[in-house]
Amino acid sequence: MEELDRRTLLAAAMIGPMLAPAAADGASSRKFGLEAASEGVRTFQAVHQGLGSIDVRLFDFGGAPAPAAFLIYDIPVGASEGVHLHNLTDPKLGAFDEYYYILEGRGKMTIDDETIPVTAGDHVHAPLDCWRGIENVDDEQRLKIFLTYIDRSSKS
């Protein structure tokens, strides 16, 4: 298992296509991309110094430029993404706005100094310079989150 920060996720998403087998005949001429559900799932330990391990589904969009990046967290019972901060001055964690959409399960999310319960269908925006983290508080069900993150750093 690997430790995870957003830069590691981005690197993993970029390297994925290079490690994948060549596409079937004709697939390279498509104007769209398709990633199978089984592709891009990796397990990371102590995400942002959280508890346990989290399965993370990475989407690379075939290396196409995108204004945002996506991933799915699949957090087992008792595990968490640690509380962390994204800002313009931390090159390790990066400058990200994050949008958490709860697909399944129940969690407890920390946003700055507030802790809120979240459940399937909830959406939480964690802007730049805002502390955030999420934990699975269910006794039986995994917590699944569709996470969209937008890089707010200025790129040359």
Shape: globular
Number of helices, where a helix is a run of at least 4 consecutive DSSP H or I residues: 1
Overall CATH class: Mainly Beta
Q: Give the strand tally.
A: 10
Q: Could you say which structural class the secondary elements and strand pairing correspond to?
A: mainly beta
Sequence-ordered SSE layout with sheet pairings:
Blueprint (H helix, E strand, L loop, with lengths): L5 H14 L21 E5 L7 E6 L10 E7 L4 E5 L11 E9 L1 E6 L2 E6 L3 E4 L5 E5 L6 E9 L5
How would you explain this protein's 3D organization?
The protein has 156 residues and is mostly beta strands. The chain has a single domain, classed as Sandwich (Jelly Rolls). Helices cover 9% and strands 40% of the residues. The strands form two sheets. Strands 1-2-3-10-5-8 form a six-stranded antiparallel β-sheet, with helices on one face. Strands 4-9-6-7 form a four-stranded antiparallel β-sheet, with no helix packed on it.
Give a brief outline of the structure:
This protein is mainly β.
Keywords:
single chain, 1 helix, 6-stranded antiparallel beta sheet, 4-stranded antiparallel beta sheet, mainly beta, 156 residues, Jelly Rolls
